[in-house]
Amino acid sequence: MASKIDNIFAASRFVLPEQRELYLQLKEDQKLSPQPTIEEDELESFHYLIRDSAREDYAVTVTWWKPVKENLGTFCSMWGVIKWIDPNSRRIRLANDESVEWIDMDKITEVRT
């Protein structure tokens, strides 16, 4: 059974739309997390897998942090083949059967085969 603190709307019968919207926004903000710090050896491993996927044309799963609100964001994940590495703007083009995504290399948190 949920406590009254978990559900602030259980005690009252009438809730203003503004209150409900603010409560739902607060719950969404609690799901956000700051960008993690990646160690140098992990970055080298990511860059190796990215270059190898682009060269050998095999699929990888890339997870990256996407900013939503100030310094908080969510994690996105997508599998596909690295089709292009843009060293000037430091981003990669990841493509699969369904979509194509440009991903900042500074936001990548994980690369798996």
Commentary on this structure:
This protein is α+β, with helices and mostly antiparallel strands and 113 residues long. 27% of the residues lie in helices and 37% in strands. It has helices spanning 17-30, 40-56; strands at 33-34, 60-69, 72-86, 91-95, 100-104, 108-112. Strands 1, 2, 3, 4, 5 and 6 form a six-stranded antiparallel beta sheet that branches. The longest helix has 17 residues, at 40-56. The chain starts with 16 loop residues before the first helix and ends with a strand. The mean pLDDT is 86.
Task: Indicate the topology.
Blueprint lengths: L16 H14 L2 E2 L5 H17 L3 E10 L2 E15 L4 E5 L4 E5 L3 E5 L1
Antiparallel strand pairs: 1-3, 2-3, 2-6, 3-4, 4-5
Contiguous low-pLDDT stretches (5 residues minimum) are: none
Number of strands: 6
Estimate the mean pLDDT confidence.
Answer: 86
Q: Gap between N and C termini, in Å?
A: 42 Å
Oligomeric organization of the protein chains: single chain
Strand content of the residues, in percent?
35-45%
- Morphology: elongated
- Main beta sheet strand tally, sense and closure: 6 strands, antiparallel
Class derived from helix and strand content: alpha+beta
Radius of gyration: 20 Å
Question: How large is the count of helical segments?
Answer: 2
Order of helices and strands: HEHEEEEE
| Helical amount | 25-40%
